[in-house]
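**Reference record**
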Amino acid sequence: MQRSHRARRSGPATPGNLPLELDAFVGRATELARLAEVLETVRLVTVTGVGGVGKTRFAAHAAARADAPDGVWRVDLSAVHDPDLVEYAVAEALGLTDHTAKPPRQVLLDHFAGRRLLLVLDGFEHLVDVSASLVGELLRRASGLRVLAVGRRPLDVGGERVFRLAPLAAAEAVELFVDRAAARVPGFVLDEGNRSDVEELCRRLDGIPLAVELAAGRLSALSPAQLLARLEDRFRLLTGGGRDTPPRHQTLRTAIGWSHELCTPGERLLWSRLSVFAGQFDLEAAEYVCSGDGLHADDILDVLGALLAQSVLAREEAAAAGVRYRMLDTVRAYGADWLEATGDAERLRRRHRDWYMGLATWCELDWFSPRQGEVAARVETELPNLRCALEYSLTEPDDAHLGQYLAGALWFYWVGCGRLSEGRHWLERSVELDGDRDQSRLKALWVLGYVAVLQGDSVPALSALQECREEAERSGNAVAVAYAEHRTGCLALVTDDMARAEALLRSALDRYHEIGELNSNVLMGQVELAMALAFQGDLTGAAKLCEDVRRVCEDHGERWALAYALYVLAYQAQVEGDQARARDLLEQGLGIAHSFHDLLGAVLAVELLALVTAVEGDPAEAALLQGAASRMWPSVGLPLFGSAYYNAPHERCAALARQRLGDERYEECLRAGELLGQDAAVARALKGAGAPPLGAVPSPRKWPPEMRKPAVSPTSKGGETTG
């Protein structure tokens, strides 16, 4: 019998994202050994079994012991409802940042090429067709990939080996009950007085771990004998259903239903309402979404605490998100059935959408503040729920404008935090709809154009921006006109039309000034104008603009736009021969960009740092940094935008390094740099200084009080924020 307390990684330096086990893993020694043998020879293994049998925990425990030199990565698809987002979810779990217009599947194939890793794909049942298609192609084209799938049914992909996980053996089920009971009731032990009741209880629950843990969660109020007596009642009441219903499905539903029946009316009500959340949620969200009609907001905390005590909810805590809660999928599904039965599901989904509309609105406002890093971390944590809110709004006929508003309001996340590809997915879906609020669609259009510009996709970018400007001028929306003109200027900048870029950006900045607009976008407009001036030889004018941006950033606590201003100032310093100042500015900017996962800002800084390094007299290190940048560019788009202006420092660096090293040594250093991953490349460029962390999200109580109120309609200015 096996009982371990923490997942062991396959090696101290092995990358991956498997969660550490916070309580004991009980039993399953034989199954673990058998699965390990299968994984050595089979590239696709699917662990199947009834809900609650412990497939997820078992697979993660086994995966942590697998031989995977390039890491073990777990993808949880349970909170993903849109089939189009499966590939994005896999890329997200792998920590891949790709700014290009490449399909996410191609991004994954490029990443897996030449790597030996294990992908754990969990919770795919509701997305089996797209999951099977993805896994099949990945396995065919990436020879070093193995997949451990976890679900209630096979994927039905060629070469798949199905590993059916049975419930725990009797002795192991008893051990699990005792372990969890001792955590609930300190001092609880198995003795002659309770042994027979515990053994009978575990037998009646068929050794299903979820059922056993739910039962153990009741020991704070009931004895094993009382649990057994109440379980008898539940079996008589809830073992109905069709004759073809598998017995273990009946048992699981009985166990959950029995736990549900033991809840108070308020606990049952909250259980059902919490089922609208995807993944994690916090207390404030639960208080808003789930209150009303029989459940006061002030009572939510106490009722939620009772559900925690009964193992209906799990409490999770992380530095980046504070205290949060999660409901197991099987328990959530049971609650969702009850919610549908009450006829209240539609109202709860709307309240859920409204809460996350409010969250997105306040995060957009707070992006232009000292809380910028906290905002980025908060949205990252809330992404599953934001996706649900987007999906709901974009599929409800009368709510198209809300979906457009939400997709546009998250511009700072799509652009500033390395989510261009997913952002484009939602934005394109939103602008295809006819909403009844022009301002929401106009904002979605200019954000779509902005995203496409950064991806190097100039034709769709120009189309979206032209449509935005024409419609904005027709409707008299001065804000949307300014943004459309600004982003068209940005497009001219990266396509080397400097005179047009300067004219458009100056005009857009004048428009911003006239309407009183001040935010990160406005500052980026100044930075982009400064870059156009610098490329035309006006370094003094460029520096003046960026010093102004720097002062505004310091006043408002803005860091993301600051990183780009520092890049332009470093460009000026480098051209004027002050390499030490250029390095200092670039290192500051690189640290900021990396902390936001802004790959474009990071790779631009690395490119210019390579030139500074070459001029300082270290051509080998300069070539290595160029190699590192060359590995980053495919995830950004066309290297240096295909721009002669942006490419000039790169060419100068390459010429210097080749002259001093010779072609053979230069190419050798390039190849060494290409072996560095993004984190390693940034650390190398920063000389080990490291990138500053984004910063932990403050506890929810530290957010502005207004943030607890939903915002279900766009602001009067089309959602753009003002300083």
